[in-house]
Amino acid sequence: MNMPIAAITLDLDDTLWPFAPIASHIDQVLDRWLRTHSPATAERFPIPAMQQLRERTWQAHPELAHDLSALRRITLEAAFQASGAPLELVQPAYEAFYAARNTVTFYDDALDALQRIAARFPIAALTNGNADLTAIGIDHLFAFQLGAREHGAAKPAPSIFHAACAQLGVPPPQVLHVGDHIELDVAGAQRAGLRGCWINRIGAQWNHPALQPDLHFDTLTGLADWLDAHVAA
């Protein structure tokens, strides 16, 4: 396959690590924090109620769909207000949340494959989430991180892909975007003029009616092997 690739853009959640365990860990950590620092809030909003409040907050603020950090802060503000707790607790509660959010467990293959790819190509992290590569300890493997919050729009908006390409200094057809989500990652990248690689760890069926991924692997190691075999250094 003739595919000139000069740079990589890479999704994070569910590509380098599974997000579901992180979400569960966040809920547990925040609940413990509230029980210590604001028992009234913890009583009013046990984990299921806090999850429902978060969902209502997200539905009420579609204009912030690209800014999960802002939505989390608004959720905390609403919980503290409803339980009569001081809003000064929002920042330390957010910090507890954010530390938990950046406690990740990589897929078994991911870190080694990421290191192999980073040794050959500049990689930009391109994410709708709010993971912090520095806090996680892998920022040295990336040229930069571009989040939906910083950019002002989330994948699959073409503008976020184009902004990453511009910062990399590489035209879109020579950038390979790698991610797990059919629409947000692969189709979004392809519509923006990039190449799209689907990392399908769960054995899902490709269901996009009009597009096919340029590359498709069940691990990041599969991509690293393919790049070693098919793309000149």
From TrEMBL:
One short Pfam name that applies is Hydrolase
Official protein name in the record: HAD family hydrolase
Gene Ontology MF term list? hydrolase activity
Q: Which UniProt keywords apply?
A: Hydrolase
Is the Ribonucleoprotein keyword given for this protein? no
Query: Which InterPro entries does UniProt cross-reference here?
Result: HAD-like_sf, HAD-SF_hydro_IA, HAD_sf, S-2-haloacid_dehalogenase
Which Gene3D superfamilies does the UniProt entry name for this protein?
A: 1.20.120.1600, HAD superfamily/HAD-like
Give the organism, scientific name: Stenotrophomonas koreensis
